[in-house]
Design a protein that fits this description.
By secondary structure, the protein is α+β, with helices and mostly antiparallel strands. Helix content is 12%, strand content 29%. It has 2 helices and 7 strands, in the order H-E-E-E-E-E-E-H-E. Strands 5-4-3-6-7 form a 5-stranded antiparallel beta sheet, covered by helices on one side. Strands 1-2 form a two-stranded antiparallel ribbon.
Length: 175
């Protein structure tokens, strides 16, 4: 294991970008391909396909999930633009959704990157195409979070208790 860590460290040091290079998160999404899954837990959208374009508008895309892992006490939806950071811009955070739900119903709304609660539509710079990761998490406990929680709060309090996760990725090009 130690030898593996050393090899990885050497590879990273030898392949690091120049100091002024922008940080861009890799996108494993192939347009139109199936969304990543965790043990049969899947998410789809009637609004866009995995790797496809998110239509403009102020309403969040419709998400539907299935195959929620046994023992799930809480569903969380996290939508993040991975082309903005780190830190990444949160577009939508919803926690404590009933595990019997198959779409976003109820729950508590977190703070998006603009500082308001609720959904913030895609708005990349003109001509830039960004990737929006719509992640659905199945947690084994309720989160003690109220409206206005942040992405950092969500990551901190869900750590170590994720029973499953799935995501679908959409793109949007700035006009």
């Amino acid at each position: 294991m130690r030898r593996f860590a050393i090899l990885i460290s050497l590879a990273v040091l030898g392949c690091s970008p120049p100091p002024n290079a922008p940080v861009v998160a890799p996108s494993p999404v192939v347009s139109g391909g199936p969304p990543p899954v965790s043990g049969g837990f899947t998410v789809t959208s009637s609004t866009f396909t995995n790797g496809g374009v998110i239509p403009p508008g102020n309403q969040p895309p419709v998400l539907t999930w299935s195959g929620v892992p046994a023992g799930t006490a809480n569903i969380v939806v996290e939508v993040v633009d991975t082309d903005t950071g780190p830190p990444f811009f949160a577009h939508w955070l919803v926690a404590n959704i009933d595990p019997k739900a198959t779409t976003v119903v109820g729950g508590v709304q977190g703070q998006n990157g603009s500082g308001a609660n609720g959904y913030y539509p895609p708005e990349p710079p003109t001509g830039a195409t960004h990737h929006y990761h719509f992640k659905v998490l199945a947690l084994g406990h309720q989160l003690q979070l109220g409206d206005g929680f942040t992405l950092q709060d969500l990551e901190k309090y869900s750590q170590g208790d994720i029973l499953g996760q799935t995501e679908i990725v959409g793109t949007f090009t700035g006009k």
